[in-house]
Structure to design on (531 residues):
């Protein structure tokens, strides 16, 4: 048995591995933050990345390795090899989630925080066995096996705020700022598509020109200049410090900052990148920055991020683009220490699965059934953008019964087998579109049951009156509505007798939604109004 599968068996005993055949996205965070990531786990799973969060303490107790970083890396490798995991979010700074210090002689310090260690899973990063990781003699592969980002959080409130920022960036951005690029300190052509607005900020600049530009709104921001842990510099002028980063108010115009400066993403302590990402009222959705010194001679690395992004024709996931940009420069990193160190220290503070925009936002036009019977069937869906078919990822999710994903071009059918009544989440994600978030309800097949049948609150054959029993599930802690065949609410039902004689004969559905304080699931039952 392969080492990864042995470790996975140990993980299963420890209760870490969910009972599913695949897991796309892994969050590793301290146990006290695992519940706070629930909303993020649900959001990513709904959008087509099956996600789970695990406590780092359990990993470090049970996984094998000579130290904490190696144990965590072996754990990530086991998920990648056995469950196909491709995305990893490290939920905390170096004081909460272990960091590997890679050997970077002459780079401010001889050892630098390096999350590439958790992304490139080949070898040990210590081929010569001397306990110094990432030396030229250690045969580092450099290519990403999983896409890794780090969330610089320490509290549940920060996790919840950051999750809200990421969802807001993908779903509710201001429409007038997405196709806008700010280049601070460079005049290179980064290749944005036609229609993009590109602003260039060159020295000499005022103290607040850069900050005011962030407030005005640029989705993509490239900073070419010096930096420290606490400030960004352009020429000789400080253009942003940690106070500015914490006080930005660009709530619906969040930026993705890419900086060549030193220690912008020095996550082994407080840094300006963390301040920008953790700002609940604005700042950045993500920061690409160096955990130690950035080398001007390697500026092409940072610039190629945009060339790669604008050349993509599929979903623009931040972490994948970050990793693929590094791939281009691996041959240089194997022979040149400056390039090797640049690949080590260029770090993503943010969600690697975050979907970037390469155009203004457009809405999807989606059609599918609102209500269906339970049982084995094909779910049919169509979607358009501006009246034309487009490529999109469809995700269907109903508890433990249905989780299906398909890339479709304008629509198609997906086999499903819902076994119980209730709602299925229907989500469609497509490049440069907010995700479509819909539902399909499932009802049990029609039966002619008397009102007195145990466990049922009403008859499914109605003649003028629907009686909702007091104390039934549909009455207690539920809001109950009658829906027509299209899923439109035609009346609210109350305990006792409900007059339905004014409604046309046909098939309807009784939907019971739990109150805000109830943990019970929603329910859906088919009824027929007859004369």
């Amino acid at each position: 048995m392969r080492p990864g599968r042995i470790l996975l068996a140990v993980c299963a005993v420890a209760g870490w591995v969910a009972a599913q055949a695949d897991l796309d996205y892994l969050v590793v965070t301290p146990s006290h933050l695992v519940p706070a990531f629930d909303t993020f786990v649900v959001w990513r799973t709904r959008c087509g990345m099956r996600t789970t969060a695990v406590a780092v303490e359990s990993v470090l107790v049970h996984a094998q390795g000579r130290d904490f970083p190696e144990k965590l890396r072996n754990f990530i490798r086991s998920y990648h090899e056995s469950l196909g995991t491709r995305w990893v979010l490290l939920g905390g700074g170096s004081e909460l989630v272990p960091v590997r210090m890679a050997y970077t002689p002459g780079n401010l310090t001889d050892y630098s925080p390096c999350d590439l260690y958790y992304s490139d899973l080949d070898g040990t990063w210590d081929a010569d066995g001397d306990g110094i990781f990432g030396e030229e003699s250690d045969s580092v592969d450099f290519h990403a096996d999983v896409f890794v980002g780090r969330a610089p959080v320490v509290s549940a409130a920060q996790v919840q705020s950051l999750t809200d920022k990421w969802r807001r960036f993908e779903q509710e951005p201001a429409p007038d700022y997405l196709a806008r690029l700010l280049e601070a300190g460079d005049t290179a052509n980064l290749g944005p598509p036609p229609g993009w607005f590109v602003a260039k900020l060159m020295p000499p600049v005022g103290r607040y020109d850069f900050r005011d530009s962030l407030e005005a709104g640029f989705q993509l921001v490239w900073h070419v200049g010096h930096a420290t842990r606490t400030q960004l510099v352009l020429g000789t002028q400080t253009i942003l410090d940690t106070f500015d980063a914490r006080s930005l108010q660009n709530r619906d115009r969040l930026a993705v900052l890419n900086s060549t400066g030193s220690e912008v993403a020095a996550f082994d302590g407080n840094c300006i990148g963390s301040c920008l990402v953790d700002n609940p009222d604005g700042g950045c959705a993500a920061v690409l920055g160096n955990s130690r010194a950035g080398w001007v001679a390697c500026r092409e690395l940072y610039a190629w991020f945009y060339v790669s992004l604008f050349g993509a024709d599929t979903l623009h996931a931040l972490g994948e683009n970050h990793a693929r940009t590094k791939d281009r420069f691996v041959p240089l990193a194997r022979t040149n220490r400056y390039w090797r160190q640049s690949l080590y220290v260029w770090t993503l503070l943010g969600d690697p699965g975050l979907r970037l925009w390469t155009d203004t936002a457009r809405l999807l036009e989606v059609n599918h059934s609102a209500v269906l019977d339970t049982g084995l069937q094909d779910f049919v869906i169509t979607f358009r953008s501006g009246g034309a078919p487009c490529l999109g990822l469809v995700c269907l999710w109903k508890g433990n019964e249905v989780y299906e994903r398909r890339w479709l071009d304008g629509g198609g059918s997906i086999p499903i087998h819902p076994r119980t009544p209730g709602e299925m989440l229907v989500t469609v994600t497509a490049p440069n579109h907010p995700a479509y978030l819909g539902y399909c309800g499932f009802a049990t097949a029609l039966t002619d049951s008397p009102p007195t049948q145990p466990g049922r609150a009403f008859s499914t054959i109605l003649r003028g009156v629907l009686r909702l029993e007091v104390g039934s599930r549909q009455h207690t802690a539920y809001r109950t509505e009658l829906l027509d065949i299209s899923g439109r609410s035609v009346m609210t039902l109350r305990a006792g007798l409900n007059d339905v004689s004014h409604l046309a004969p046909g098939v309807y559905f009784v939907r019971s939604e739990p109150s805000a304080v109830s943990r019970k699931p929603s329910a859906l039952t088919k009824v027929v109004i007859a004369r």
In short: The CA atoms of residues 136 and 335 lie 8 Å apart.
